[in-house]
Amino acid sequence: MFDDTLLSAIRARFVHVEECPFTGPRIFFENAGGALTLKSVVETSARFAAIPDNQGRDNPASQALVKVIDRSRADVRRFFNADGGTVIFGESGTELLFRLIKDACLGAPEGVVLGSTVEHPASRSAAARWAAQSDRRHVLVAHDDANGSVTAEAYAAEVAPDTAVVTILHTSPVTGMSMDLPAIVAAVRAVAPDAYIIADGIQHACHGGIDLTAAGVDGYVISPYKVFSRHGYGVAWLSDRLAALAHDTLIGGPEGNWELGTRDTGAYATFSEVVDYFDWLGAQVSDASDPRARIEAAGEAIHEHETALTQAMVHGTGNLAGLATLPGVQIVGGADNPAREGLVSFWAEGLPSAKIVERLNGAGVRTHLRKADHYSGNILAPLGQDACVRVSLAHYNSMGEVRRFLTAMQEILP
């Protein structure tokens, strides 16, 4: 785990760590709904919001904006460990998943669209729509209800030589489990080497550890507001062969351009702030001199810190009982699951999850109610639940906050 000195330095770089601007002091365990924002992102957003110039003009201000954008694209590649390819910024992560999946379905040779039942509706809905529009079968690999994840072996059982487009969820925002992305891709490529593979990395990004060179996907999408930036844009990386497919663009416009209209330079600049933060953190936890190595070191340290927090949340700390031993509590994905990334979802027999979230709010602990709706029904309905409590943390959260959560839970449960 981070020591107290480093954790204090980390927390000092974020806005609203300890209190909500509307309700006052609180612990923020709703990071899967949107992580806290870096102070540098807020400052950079304000600075670029005031600039009247656009990119692509023949003046010094415009040229400076282009340099900011070029730097940001390079930062995205380093953050993703992606050599070459195309980086695009769009409206949101969901919008970019729809665009990439649409163009893959419309441009790939005849064949099946393969996804899984664990996926967020952003990718699952896009695949269902564009499979139908392109006259393809949409096959869903069943996830393991008990573990809250889907394996490479499960994909291998369903992939066929005519599999043309594949969607994969990197980490579930409901179960909290990370999928073995390189293993799933390898299982697909062993049977359908030319399939277009698109991954949803929206939930995974804030936990570090993105390596597209190792993963071998054709598309990867994140939502920066879930990785310490702000709302209003999404980021995607496309392989050269995916980027070469026909896509929405202006007649006579630049060859290979995927971005429509004038983008917000501030969005690019704020993502560079995110990458700079990972670089800074990597320098605190390692002696690495290479920028990518520092990002990798930051990701490893984040994973270690968050694992310690979730383990305490599940199994207890000191004289405080963990969720696994509290009366009537059932943990989504099981109490001991090595795939867990900074998130614990649970329900308690005899007490509605909505009541638990309400009482935690009253105790100053911000969590979230996940209902068996279009967002989470694919996970909760097979478990026979209409809702659960999602407790999602990030690396700036502390063991003291976990203890306060567990204390509140002991008081809330009958």
Automatic annotation (TrEMBL):
Keyword annotations from UniProtKB, A to Z: Lyase, Pyridoxal phosphate
Pfam families for this protein: Aminotran_5 (PF00266)
Signal peptide: none
Residues in Aminotransferase class V domain copies: 27-405
Any one GO MF annotation of this record: lyase activity
Identification of the protein by name: Selenocysteine lyase/cysteine desulfurase
UniProt organism field: Sagittula marina
